Amino acid sequence: MMKGYSKAIAMTSIATLGAINIACAADLPTKTAPVKFVDAPFFLINDNRLTYAYDFDTPSTGFGRPGTNTKTNRQVIAFTHFDAWAYGTNALDVGYVKFDQNHPANPCLAPGTGTCDGATESYAFIRSTLGFNEIFNTKAFSVGPLRNVSFEVGGGYAAVNDFLQLQTQHAVAGLQFAFNLPYKGFFNIAPMVHLSWYESPLVAPGSPFVPPGFPGVPYGHLDFNPTWTIEANYYMNLGFLPESIPLAISGRGYVIGPKGTGYAAGLLPAAGFPTTKTEIIAEPVRLTLDVSKMAWGDKYSHFVDVWVAYKYRKNITGADNSLDPLCVGGTCTGSSVYTGTTVKF
Predict the structure, then answer these.
(1) pLDDT tens column, 288-320
(2) CB 101 within 8 Å of CB 117
(3) Range of 254's domain?
């Protein structure tokens, strides 16, 4: 008998899965029937989806050029993958973002006039877990609503071709605590160590934005101090509604602690140069309607979802929204509403 397995994770731009139980059993053998052994599948869950989303009036992230609009609309196309195997899970999110002309691509000689193309951004995000219950073949890490404790590791990369031409990379490692919620829902929270590296030509030697008397950072590379992060996500079907309205609520959030300036010792340009602040990336609520289940029944659950969400960000990329010169007009903090559709294949 293979024990039931229940696991799920919420990702940026994915309509999250609810708890999934997989079990198999074989009849006891008889003297006249030979025993047949059937290999269990390696992946207990293998879920792949495509998402298109439209983000209204999001902050024009740290653009920092006078005369530009502080709000922009974004279109997002994303591929998301989630799998679960005998000892843990893997989640991948790869996306492409297209901004409108309020957030122009570099170079743009007349920002704010609508004459330049909108910037584009590419990103990739991965998280993997190893469950302690599965590794040690025990139920010791399931107590009350606590379903499991896991080791979690991951990383990410993003690059945007706007004025900042910023490339960001990060790596995380820590523990994830998974809790059960009503209606086959879950809540996961993961305190972890966070490392990040940025690159931008604006801080490279010879850049006109390098302060007087400061030689600049070789190759424009910023190596930040290790810091803490807390990542959390939840998902729950609204099971108290009629079955004809398959609606679910979910959310996710990341809090990343201050990580210094990114400059090596002795290279800090001047006293009082703004250091990074605690960064908040939150989507506290997303409402998802399972359109395919509503139209064609349980067999097609989550084949087509439509959703709407609220997003809030503070001190984007860690930039101090009050002091950093790249946050002209408060562009490093803001909120927006966005909506989209997700298709499973």
Answers:
(1) 999 999 999 999 999 999 999 999 999 999 988
(2) yes
(3) 125-344
